[in-house]
Amino acid sequence: MASSAASGEEPAPLLPALLLFRRLDADFAAALRQRFRVLDFFASGEPLPAFLAGAAALPDPPRAAVVMGGGAVRVDAALLDAVPSLGFVFSTGAGVDHIDLCECARRSVAVANSGTVYSADVADHAVGMLIDVLRRVSAAERFVRSGLWPAQGDFPLGTKLGGKRVGIIGLGNIGSLIAKRLEAFGCIIHYNSRRSRDSVPYKYFFNVHDLASESDVLVVACALNKDTRHIVNKDVLEALGKDGIIINIGRGANIDEAELVRALKEGRIAGAGLDVFENEPKVPAELFSMDNVVMTSHVAVFTSESRSDLCDTTIGNLEAFFSGKPLLTQVLPW
Amino acid sequence: MASSAASGEEPAPLLPALLLFRRLDADFAAALRQRFRVLDFFASGEPLPAFLAGAAALPDPPRAAVVMGGGAVRVDAALLDAVPSLGFVFSTGAGVDHIDLCECARRSVAVANSGTVYSADVADHAVGMLIDVLRRVSAAERFVRSGLWPAQGDFPLGTKLGGKRVGIIGLGNIGSLIAKRLEAFGCIIHYNSRRSRDSVPYKYFFNVHDLASESDVLVVACALNKDTRHIVNKDVLEALGKDGIIINIGRGANIDEAELVRALKEGRIAGAGLDVFENEPKVPAELFSMDNVVMTSHVAVFTSESRSDLCDTTIGNLEAFFSGKPLLTQVLPW
Fold first, then answer.
1. Where is the signal peptide (chains A, B) (predicted)?
2. Mean pLDDT within A113-138
3. CATH number, domain with residue B43
4. Disulfide engineering: A119 pairs with which of A7, A146, A173, B281, CB 3.0-4.6 Å?
5. A chain contacts of residue B307, beta-carbon cutoff 8 Å
6. How many domains does chain B have?
7. How large is the C-alpha radius of gyration of chain B?
8. What ipTM was estimated for this complex?
9. What mean pLDDT do residues B244-259 have?
10. CA torsion through residues A325, A326, A331, A334, sign
């Protein structure tokens, strides 16, 4: 078949180039390729510097990049230097701790994230893990699957969810949805956040230590940044106390993981539900033998429904950027 | 030390005799023994007929019995014949399918149960199992604990809870609390019950088959009786369909278990969360290898808080019976 040029038609306009730094399922990848010329880092097999240099040297170098929260590639000064054509970075997660926002702001690189696409799923997962830890669901599951029920009979008692004081660290989209769900179970909600909110009936704590000492359960639902790294440290765990439960659906580094493992080993807190870890996919091996810990593999956002919503949000933001319209879920400019 | 008679005091009044047909923890047992002369079947080591004959032959034979839902001893005509002094049976569960209510009514034997002591805990457990099945929590737990995360990477996507149509079979105390919780997650509640309720905004279905065909999730929360045995049968599973999830916190025999196992094996339904089974503690071995099934060992009522509430409710009902006052949580007389 003749090329469009040979057939006398105008050549098809070149699709805008896009740097891609995450693996995508087939539908999502196809939707992007239909609209953009995707320069796929993982598919390239190249080392990062060579890949970036190649992209920057193209006649129409990429103006946008799609990156992944918790992924291997950080958007930092080095990356922005390597591809100076970049004007927009889209993070497929809610967290932007893998993006140096100051460097982006300095260079007028716009940033958007996944917005609230994942919020309900993450809140659901947090509540599921809390019920699991209190009511020993996964532990009872192991008990049944290993055939121990007929031999050993009754399983140890769990703990009631109703009436528990739940301290939420970070009352953003996700934290608010967790609060709403737990209210329906009869929990008493406390929270810590950068500032107190007039619009909610929950008790505000200015610092996490005080929040922990007046809570039975601590839920980490904040973004990771320099202020929230290890926001749950040895002192906070001590304040939570030996009957306290901790749930983390934020980022692994929000908790001092070594201290958490020590507190669990020594019975200084009662249990934990962890979807995130400091050095994913590495999980401290000491946790594997603990029946009072529930661990999942950073899957709180993993539903087919949110994946489909993410695809729409990604394309919507990229199309807005390339057509000079307002971003849908803008993080930068502030 | 001298006996009270020898010391000239009146002999202490004999505590009322009580038949006990369940194992109790130490605090609960002590609370009963303080108030009643407990004739403990399991501690006696006797066969049931000999134990009952011995109790009936006492100078002050027992007028009350404490029995356990799902326990080994049924309160039927034979038991009531053997101990004709019985005037009250207390079931430590909400279900009374182990008590022949018609025989009790015929002999004017009063019956009380645990009332709403367990309702919130059972509702919490049902929601926990539903999140677990949809979001693969226990399956992800096995994945992490077996060290597969670093080797295999991403875990399969789960399914969002919000927007799901949840059909509840039995909108009593427990069913209503499940509905209230799931509304907070954005679920759409449908129900089937003996009769439609004007006080709830949920859509009523006269039969379970129609409920299943308009639901994504079916939750069994009804009592077990002759009308509800195998209320979830092959046809209902067929109506629920291949994307459907079933949760059972009622009684194992509410579901035709053999048909459920077959439907799961053949992919004709998507998953199940089961706290109860037809032949507990026996669980069909085919389920042990299924990642889309969450199984717990009839622990939906197992919290230390509800255990303590049960102790209060048991003693309150027994003291009411022995002092001729109204029972607290009466089942019979109707």
1. none
2. 97
3. 3.40.50.720
4. A173
5. 157
6. 2
7. 23
8. 0.89
9. 97
10. positive
Average pLDDT score over chain B: 94
Indicate whether B112 and B123 sit together in one domain.
Answer: no
Say which of B124, B150, B153 has its CB closest to residue A135. B124
Same domain, B82 and B23: yes
> Are B156 and B203 within one domain?
yes
What DSSP line would sit under B84-133, residue for residue? Answer: TT--EEEESSS--TTB-HHHHHHTT-EEE--TTTTHHHHHHHHHHHHHHH
Same domain, residue pair A125 and A258:
yes
Radius of gyration, alpha carbons of chain A: 23
Examine residue A12 and state whether it is found in any structural domain, yes or no: no
Helix (H, G, I), strand (E, B) or coil at A19: strand
pLDDT at A35 over 50: yes
The answer, for A140 touching chain B at a CB cutoff of 8 Å, is yes
| Bridge partner residues of A191 (DSSP) | A168, A204
- Is B286's Cβ below 8 Å from some Cβ in A? no
Distance from CA of B152 to the nearest CA of A (A): 10
Residue A144 sits in the same domain as residue A248 = yes
**pLDDT higher than 50, residue B323:** yes
Q: pLDDT at position B262, please? A: 98
| A324-A24-B216-A273 Cα dihedral, nearest 10 degrees | -100
Q: How far apart are CA B239 and CA A238, in angstroms?
A: 52
Selecting from A144, A295, A299 the residue whose C-beta is nearest the C-beta of B158 gives A299
B280 is annotated as an active-site residue: yes
In-domain check, residue A186:
yes
pLDDT in tens, A204-238: 999 999 999 999 999 999 999 999 999 999 999 99
Residues B181 and B259 in one domain: yes
The encoded tokens of residue B137 equal 């929590």
Any domain includes A158: yes
Domain of residue B174 covers: 119-295
Is B298 among the residues known to form the active site?
Answer: yes
Annotated catalytic residue A251:
yes
